Amino acid sequence: MITVQQQPGSPSPASRHRYNLATRHQLVASGVPDGTVTSRSRPGGPWQRLLPRVYLLQTGPPDRRQRALAAVLYAADPGSDPLSGATAALTGGAALALLGIPDAPCTPADVLIRAPRKLAGTPDVRTVPTTRWPRTITVSGVPSARPVRAAADFAAGAEDPDRVRSTLAHVVQAGWCHPQDLHTELRAARLLARPAVRAAAAELLVGVRSIAEARARDAVEGTDLPVPLWNARLHTLDGSFLASPDAYWPDEGVALEIDSVEYHYTRDAWQATLRRRLRLEAHGVLVVSATPSMIRDTPTEVLDAVRTLLALAASRPGPPAALVRGHQQLPLFRAG
After folding, report:
1. In the chain, how many domains are there?
2. Are 174 and 99 within 8 A, CB to CB?
3. Domain ends where: 205, 232, 256?
4. How many CB atoms lie within 10 A of CB 40?
5. What is the CATH number of the domain that holds 286?
6. Which of 196, 197, 250, 262 is deepest in the core (most CB within 10 A)?
7. What is 121-138 written as a DSSP string?
8. How far apart are CA 219 and CA 303, in angstroms?
9. DSSP 8-state code for residue 295
10. Considering the domain boundaries, does residue 333 fall inside one?
């Protein structure tokens, strides 16, 4: 569950032990003697010390949500309500993982704190002082930065260009933020000076929504092929939605569909893919189908197939019965 964080009042007793977690300060304030906290969190005891001053009030292992909340409890100012999002907020890969972004790293958890406050990190928690405090939300009970800020903070610490591409694309594809809003956030964080981040932002602005599409775009840009539209929405002549192919050459009526086995492993999913292709072809759109591995390993073969269909389309007597509607190639701002 995700909610916009409101200004808190006094924390309720129930909120002090949310998800079987509490700080030493909270436990003592609720009447638990300091010695009891120590004794119960010894090896074999009913509680576990997850982080300095943060305790898991159960014997079983913590889940992802509990680890994320523990990181925030550790980083929050002891004198504040740690659940308010006012002094500590989850961000980066750990925040994206709570949103369900594939392959987003859960650990170490990045937690924003207000500069100039400083706090030592741990192997499981990285504290990130910032002067640009974000508006916070609550994700599964954990105070977090909004997805657009979490994505930018992830990009700031990621070193693998493909992981930056893939993760930012997943955030946009899932609808957590608009590509132009993400571009604005990356620019505000001065991350567009990094080639990998700048390239990923540029791809999202023109409509690319996955790393396979990004690789296909790289391959197309290295040739004399016309520039396609990425994820354009095609409609029939009467206005009905037809499909949204990964790449589309509108003048020729040629589409490139990148079909991942991950999303087509069931009979129903595969049949839906075939029906979409039949609809496109029934309206005069010529379709090249490829898998992400083909785009990665044998892009020349895929582009040869595209080139052949583009040449075939040029000899057709008329255009396809499909129209592109609502597609906008967003402007790419320079890094500043």
Report:
1. 3
2. yes
3. 205
4. 16
5. 3.40.960.10
6. 197
7. --SSEEEEEESSPPPEEE
8. 8
9. H
10. no
| Higher local confidence (pLDDT), 76 or 2 | 76
Q: Which domain holds residue 158?
A: 146-205
Residue 48, classed as helix, strand or coil, is strand
Q: Give the 3-state secondary structure of residue 35.
A: helix
Please give the full DSSP string across 82-102, using - where no structure is assigned: TTSSSSEEEEHHHHHHHTT-T
Q: Which amino acid is at 214?
A: A
- In this predicted structure, what is the pLDDT of residue 3? 46
> In sequence order, which residues have a C-beta less than 8 Å from that of residue 203 and are 6 or more positions away?
165, 169, 213, 214, 217
**Closest by Cα among 223, 184, 200 to 305:** 223
- Whether 192 and 299 share a structural domain: no
Q: How far is CA 207 from CA 42, 228, 229, 250, in A?
A: 54, 10, 7, 15
Q: Pick from 156, 161, 137: which is nearest to 147 by CA? A: 137
Q: How far apart are CA 300 and CA 306, in angstroms?
A: 10
How many angstroms separate the CA atoms of 36 and 30, rounded?
Answer: 12
Instruction: Report the share of the chain in percent with pLDDT over 70.
Output: 90
CB atoms within 10 A of CB 33: 10
- Cα–Cα distance measured from residue 300 to residue 99, given in angstroms and rounded to the nearest whole number: 36
56 and 157 assigned to the same domain: no
Tell me the C-alpha distance between 297 and 307, whole Å.
18
In terms of Cα–Cα distance, which of 121, 119, 117, 185 is closest to 150? 185
Supply 331's token pair. 């402007």
Pairing of strands 109-114, 125-130: parallel
Same domain, residue pair 153 and 201 = yes
Question: Where among 127, 145, 163 does a domain terminate?
Answer: 145
- Give the integer Cα–Cα distance in Å for 130 and 147: 17
Closest CA to 124 of 93, 103, 98, 152: 93
